[in-house]
Protein: Oxidative stress defense protein
Amino acid sequence: MRAVTKWAIALSSVASFSVFANPSFPHIATTGYGEVVAKPDMAEFSVKVVETTLTAEQAKQTVDKVVEDFLASLKSNGVEADNFTSSNLYLTPQYHYPKKGKPELVGYRATRSVTVVVEDLSQLNQYLDLALADGINQVNNIRLKVKDQASYQEQARMAAIKDANQKAKSLAEGFEQELGPVWRVNYNMQNNQPVLMRSMAMDAKSEASSYQDSTIVIRDRVDVIYKLDN
Structure:
């Protein structure tokens, strides 16, 4: 085998090189990517009630009643208390700004939010219907998730490791070098975002089946430096 001077074969993004201090021996640096496609089986959604009235007390009472009714409906439909939370009241004065003169106080806007974890995705529409019936007037978002996130993440991680190894072997063979042992591994678990459905007003019907046909792509990545034997 030919002698190898101090050089490196690198297959990675520019960002990957900033991760490693460049070693002084012959090496190959690769970045492995892995992903797993999963079907969501649970969800988390956040809804909000917004009311504007002439007085602060009236706005507060209206919003509090809607939230209390919705929480009661969730409980009566079997949702555990650990699976929903409600925010504190947020109250802001509303002003009219005439072209001339001082701003005029015209009322108060009160808002409260409720976040619900749905253990069974098939019940998501049911809970959204409850929110609508109880006076909730905004859906902030719907996040689709998988219960066994750790298992899917492990599959994506192993796929990333396999990808890094395959790239390193291919490069070594292509340049007629002998791949040595792994010298360094840099791993930071990918921050996978759940599928986020669009925000909507409660008076507009959403596509009932849109989230049921969705998939979640869980990704992972690993940066590896291999020694080259010469």
